[in-house]
Amino acid sequence: MLWPQAITTRVKTGHDRELVHSYPYRSACPSQVWNDLVAGVGENLYLCGYTNYFFFTQLPSFSETLRRKAEAGCKVRFLLGDPDGEVTRQRERIEDVALTVSTRIRITLENLARLDSPEGLEVRYSAPEDAVNHVSLSVFRFDDEALVTPHLARLVGHDSPLLHLRRRGDGGMFGRFADHAEELWGNGVPVA
Question: Which domain holds residue 58?
């Protein structure tokens, strides 16, 4: 027997190899993980969170990093919820916090507007029919890695769990979440 049972039960062998780490709260993920993923992305930075505002408040020089990435040929995409949409209003009633969902979206829009639309940067709102699917699951993609937050009931994003995934082939969790985010993007509405 090449691998004793004690080893095979502790070694990742299937699609679970894609799970790099899990965190009980998004806020428990070290800021260095976020910084390293953003710094290391070269081709595809896709932020499919409903508000995405925390990137601008928690990552140093995030706006300048976005500009550099886009100018270097990286595809930078933001999918946001519509700040005036019905799902946004419903989510605000559910969360019942001072920093409302629409305010968080507008913080992101304001920061993106300051970038003056460099080539390679795209921003869309999720389609009204997809908004309920978008608000319940955030997928932040950095080339072949992703941070995924399934939002729990009445909790805000930073209080929901987070999975750090790395693509290891086709048909795994990374691909399933990436496909979900791409479908939302494909149906998205350009921000005017």
Answer: 30-138+168-190
